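#struct-help
A.M.: can someone run this one for me? Single chain, 187 residues.
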Amino acid sequence: MKTIIGRLFLAALVVGAISFFSAPLVAFFALRSAAEAQDVAGLARLVDFGAMRQSLRPQLSGRPADLAPPPSFMEDPIGAIQNQLQRNPIVRAPDVEAYLTPNGLSGLTNGEGRAAAEPPLPPSATDPNVTHRPFPKPRYWGFNRARMGVAGRDGEETLFTFERRGPFEWKLVHVGLPAETSSAKNP
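D.P.: on it. Structure tokens below:
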């Protein structure tokens, strides 16, 4: 009797550990499924939209200085003043909302990278690459954070960072877009 209870306990422990560590991968596939099904309520449970907006704005602005935090007034008063004077409030902020729509998130999870914000093209029956649904590859796996990369058709990788919000609950907090290519800048 002791061996049966011990084996059941060990099996439950193994199943719990596998579930605990595979939860980010399950969250990624749930995100992809909710985006493709246009399930806005499901996306609200899976995505931290405030953190996503904050992470996408510097990537879309095209200015590398935006990726670093601004200098603090206490550490570098001259740099902080220069930073405030160089900001132009008239310059239009990048449109991050296009990436946060169900179509945009679906494109990101399917490896479209920066092109995910563009309206989707109708699939043609002759295109063999219509069903491009790459499998995410783990890039970092920590206790409270997991990062997965999805390769697009051109080989560029989009990185997804999930953060633990509960024992089995993970939310998307950051998407690392592929670097802009010179052909994308100059059409």
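A.M.: thanks! The first strand starts at residue 137 and ends at 141.
D.P.: also worth noting: The two ends are 72 Å apart (CA to CA).
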